[in-house]
Design brief:
It holds the Pfam family DNA_alkylation. Helix content is about 70%, strand content about 0%. By secondary structure, the chain is mainly α. The protein has two domains: about 80 residues, no CATH class; about 100 residues. Helix 3 crosses helix 5, helix 5 runs parallel beside helix 7 and helix 9 packs parallel to helix 11.
Length: about 200
Amino acid sequence: MTTSQTIKDKILKIKSTFRLLMNGVASHSMRQKGLEYHLNWGIDFVQLKSIAKDYGKDEPLAIALWKEDIRECKILATLIMPPERMLPELTEIWLEQTLSQEIAEMSAFNLYQHVSYASTLAFQCIADGRDIRQICGYNILSRLFMKGQYPNERSIDEFLDQAHTALQSTNIAVRHAAMNSLKRFAQMGEEYEKMVMK
């Protein structure tokens, strides 16, 4: 059996699992809140994590899943993509195809915080004019700060400047993501807290 056939079979199996776990109420609720996907089964994150465990880290499957315009496929892709195989060029493609706040947050949490260039990626995203990228960038930074990754002086100045601007954003999700990252930054120690208060 060819590799492409194996991937197709895995995707068919995954989709049949989605049908069994479908939550119409959750899916309808997401649509009402403006979360538009071509297809949304309303499956919660805990269940998706459980499905991801069955497949382990699998780059070809993750790439194939990401191409499906289905909420659960995209989230699953972020869970099974090996971070060391996530090259910057591929990240750029995925970011370009990220159209919702939820997927931006999930990508940051499940995958982007673990890539070797996470800090560089985060700073590129927060300096970008697009809301989705900024949400993604601030979420990556929040995770890095939580892991005790201290930025250097130049990065601190850039972060505080960008976050200050983001707090004036008309997009509530951008403001929320920036505020969360500032909170995480402040929690790294007294001097960091003073910088935020200032």
